[in-house]
Automatic annotation (TrEMBL):
PANTHER family cross-referenced by the UniProt entry: GLUTAMINE TRANSPORT SYSTEM PERMEASE PROTEIN GLNP, MEMBRANE COMPONENT OF AMINO ACID ABC TRANSPORTER
Location of the protein in the cell: Cell inner membrane; Cell membrane
Keyword Oxidoreductase (UniProt): no
GO cellular component, one term: ATP-binding cassette (ABC) transporter complex
Family (UniProt): Belongs to the binding-protein-dependent transport system permease family. HisMQ subfamily.
Listed name of the protein: Putative glutamine transport system permease protein GlnP
InterPro entries named among the record's database cross-references: AA_ABC_transptr_permease_3TM, ArtM/GltK/GlnP/TcyL/YhdX-like, MetI-like, MetI-like_sf
GO molecular function: transmembrane transporter activity
Functional description taken from the UniProt entry: Part of the binding-protein-dependent transport system for glutamine; probably responsible for the translocation of the substrate across the membrane.
Membrane topology of this protein: Multi-pass membrane protein
Main location: membrane
Pfam (any one): BPD_transp_1
Residue ranges occupied by any ABC transmembrane type-1 domain in the UniProt entry: 147-334
Length: 345
């Protein structure tokens, strides 16, 4: 019994050792790469230094302290007397002052205001509409509202564009000449004209005829533009699957639709994932063009903030950082999904 346990322990120790052992060649490869990683750091530091030197030549004064208020700030709401009244009670509780007003009819009005904004004292008479004080609460700044607009435009346009692109891509492979011709005309027209022109057409022409809102026109233009590129990605992905896969599925009794849904498309999805991710990343950046029809997305919010903050570089760097905040996780998620699908093969 002891011999069996010792043999088992030995096998377990050997398995653990093999699992945790790093091949010598891999270790050498990692050691050989660290100078290149160091060079990367040096290049990035050099670029940061060059930027700082360039701004010093322009005598530019950085004012990062002005930036936070455009992300979030403390908004003030005035608290006013509802009638001609007298301050009959005033109680301070920390940073808050509770004020009780009473009119000639004996009706009381209780207000809670910030203590340092208090405009009255006990026994004061106030008229209707007089400011007693203000309440403060945190509110989102214009950059965060612009980020929200960019996010919902991207998500809605991306979902619609994916549905349009999938249907159009399959139509381009259809044996029906009408479906194939119409889908080809749509793809070529959209891909052959600038997105900015399409936005103008949707809003100023189609939008005027159909009385569309600027948001609807913007989403429609972005969706159709994205759908055309997704259609070509889908078409190329499906055509990259060997014809024998479809023929084998049909020989097993599957219909054309079942073969496409259960055999061809799952394999094609693995191949089109990288270009699809790239297209959706481009879509996030393309949303900046809808500012021409007065939609205040992230870039337009940044431009408006620059006019009041007089800190153009700081705001533009923040805008670029917010775009990265959207696109980098999207890219990482696509890469992780791609690796997971590759492991499942």
């Amino acid at each position: 019994m002891s011999m069996r346990s010792s043999v088992g322990a030995g096998l377990l120790a050997k398995a653990v050792s093999q699992a945790t052992h790093i091949p010598e060649s891999e270790m050498k490869q990692k050691k050989a790469q660290w100078p290149w990683h160091l060079l990367t750091v040096v290049v990035l530091v050099g670029l940061a230094g060059a930027l700082y030197y360039a701004t010093s030549l322009m005598s530019y004064e950085w004012r990062w302290n002005r930036v936070p208020q455009y992300f979030a700030y403390q908004a003030e709401t005035s608290q006013r007397a509802a009638d001609i009244s007298t301050v009959v009670e005033l109680v301070r509780k920390g940073d808050v002052a509770e004020v009780t007003l009473r009119n000639d009819a004996g009706v009381e009005q209780k207000l809670s205001v910030a203590d340092n904004s208090l405009q009255v004292a006990r026994g004061d008479d106030v008229a209707e509409g007089d400011v007693v004080g203000v309440t403060r609460h945190w509110a989102l700044g214009p950059l965060m509202w612009g980020l929200w607009t960019t996010l919902w435009l991207s998500v809605v346009s991306g979902v619609l564009g994916l549905a349009i692109g999938l249907a159009t891509g399959l139509c381009r492979l259809s044996s029906n000449p009408t479906l194939r011709d119409l889908s080809t005309i749509y793809v070529e027209l959209v891909r052959g004209t600038p997105l900015l022109v399409q936005i103008f057409i949707f809003y100023f022409f189609i939008g005027t005829v159909l009385n569309l809102s600027r948001e609807f026109a913007g989403v429609a233009a972005l969706s159709l533009f994205t759908g055309a590129y997704v259609a070509e990605i889908v078409r190329a992905g499906v055509q990259s699957i060997a014809r024998g896969q479809n023929e084998a599925a049909r020989s097993l009794g599957l219909s054309a639709g079942q073969s496409m849904r259960h055999v061809v498309l799952p394999q094609a999805f693995k191949r089109v994932l990288p270009p699809l991710a790239g297209q959706f990343i481009s879509l996030v950046k393309d949303t900046s063009l809808v500012s021409v029809i007065a939609i205040t997305e992230l870039l337009k919010s940044g431009r408006e903030v620059i006019t009041t903050s007089f800190s153009p570089f700081e705001i533009l760097f923040c805008v670029a950082g917010l775009y990265l905040l959207i696109n980098l996780p999207l890219s990482k998620m696509a890469s992780r999904l791609e690796r997971r699908l590759a492991q499942s093969d």
